[in-house]
Structure to design on (412 residues):
């Protein structure tokens, strides 16, 4: 067994979060890079199905703050890369909000609003904290990637900072994923229920020029992550549990860019003594130089899979963990810890060789747990009249007018 496989096999639960008075699905997760917040501690942010955000102390999983303000489903949370005191969230209410984690419960320090018809279904912040991009659901034939200057500057207008512009021609259905490159601030990849995965260089003048590559999964995209030693590969998961692994380094060669194509991982992945019900997301393990995919069962068991050109290979299962579908995870390379969260309202911290000291029992929410709930039903937030009159005001983005060299990272 390779070293990194042995490391995964020894993962045990170190901590469980305490059950809240109002149990809720935990949908997305992010971890601050360094100590942050009022207590100078490493923090974990989790988005909840009740449209709130919970922030925890990573080591104790004690709840240190809650944030409310979104009026629609939250589609993601991200800590800033250069200032761990800043936390971003995006929602189907058409806003991206920035919170100061040193002041729990206080209103967002900045609200980035889209255009009136926008219903956000995905978002990300680039590695330099200069640009925010949010993908929208399809409303009246329109689907957009909306961009803002991410610098947190107090605005005299109650409307907040205006978008820099949009990309509108590259997808024709809900944009389910937006992921900036880990180190190239101008590069972003998007995925959609139209099956397309598009790679853009936003440093160019127009959307046509920005589009570097289009890959087709032939199915609705559920997750995207960057992979490879140079992070020039893309791992794409689909809502019907397919997996596609592409190598962008081959774009300028005659070699195929597809490293692996799996139509249904549930049927092709051998799980000794068990089963695989769904895939959650992929992650790149930098020290092992391996792409790892995390999946699970509807009863809460987690499976760690090694992604190779030959296919997915089961490495190990994490036992006695969740009691319902796991929706998200975060791997922290600093201490080789794993955070997982899901539909049983539990946040778990895993560490190699850990011994759980807490006596808290696993709690199971009384709501039905179904992998089908990973696809959110579209509920327009605006009237048909608003949609028909608002789409004409979009500004198609040109980053030639966006002086990247003059932008600084946000700080509070």
């Amino acid at each position: 067994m390779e070293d990194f496989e042995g490391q995964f096999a020894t993962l045990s639960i170190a901590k469980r979060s305490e059950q809240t008075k109002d149990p809720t699905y935990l949908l997305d997760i992010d971890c601050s890079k360094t100590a942050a917040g009022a207590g100078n501690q490493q923090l974990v942010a989790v988005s909840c199905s009740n449209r709130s955000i919970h922030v925890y102390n990573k080591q104790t999983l004690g709840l240190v703050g809650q944030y409310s303000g979104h009026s629609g489903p939250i589609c993601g949370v991200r800590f800033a890369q250069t200032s761990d005191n800043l936390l971003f969230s995006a929602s189907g209410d058409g806003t991206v909000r920035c919170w100061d984690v040193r002041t729990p419960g206080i209103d967002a320090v900045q609200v980035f609003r889209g255009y009136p018809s926008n219903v956000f279904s995905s978002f990300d912040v680039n590695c330099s904290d200069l640009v925010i991009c949010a993908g929208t659901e399809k409303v009246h034939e329109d689907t957009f990637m909306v961009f803002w200057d991410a610098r947190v500057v107090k605005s005299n207008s109650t409307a907040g900072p205006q978008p820099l512009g949009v990309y509108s021609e590259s997808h024709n259905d809900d944009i389910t994923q937006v992921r900036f490159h880990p180190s190239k601030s101008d590069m972003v990849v998007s995925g959609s229920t139209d099956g397309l995965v598009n790679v853009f260089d936003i440093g160019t003048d127009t959307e046509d020029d920005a589009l570097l590559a289009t890959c087709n999964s032939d199915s609705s995209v559920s997750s995207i992550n960057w992979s490879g030693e140079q992070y020039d590969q893309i791992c794409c998961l689909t809502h019907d549990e397919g997996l596609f692994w592409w190598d962008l380094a081959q774009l300028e060669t005659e070699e195929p860019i597809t490293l692996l194509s799996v139509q249904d991982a549930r049927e092709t992945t051998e799980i000794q003594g068990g089963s695989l019900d769904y895939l959650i997301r992929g992650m790149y393990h930098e020290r092992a130089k391996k792409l790892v995919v995390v999946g699970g069962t509807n009863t809460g068991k987690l499976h760690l899979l090694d992604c190779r050109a030959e296919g997915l290979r089961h490495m190990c299962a994490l036992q006695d963990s969740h009691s319902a579908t796991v929706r998200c995870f975060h791997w922290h390379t600093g201490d080789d810890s794993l955070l997982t969260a899901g539909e049983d309202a539990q946040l778990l911290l895993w560490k190699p060789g850990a011994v759980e000291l807490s006596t808290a029992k696993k709690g199971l929410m009384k709501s039905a747990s179904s992998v089908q709930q990973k696809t959110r039903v579209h509920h327009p937030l605006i009237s048909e009249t608003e949609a028909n009159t608002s789409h004409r005001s979009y500004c198609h983005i040109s980053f030639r007018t966006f002086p990247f060299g003059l932008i600084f990272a946000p700080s509070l």
Notes: Helices lie at 3-9, 207-210, 265-268, 384-390. Confidence is low (pLDDT under 50) at residues 366-393, 399-412. The chain has four helices and 28 strands.
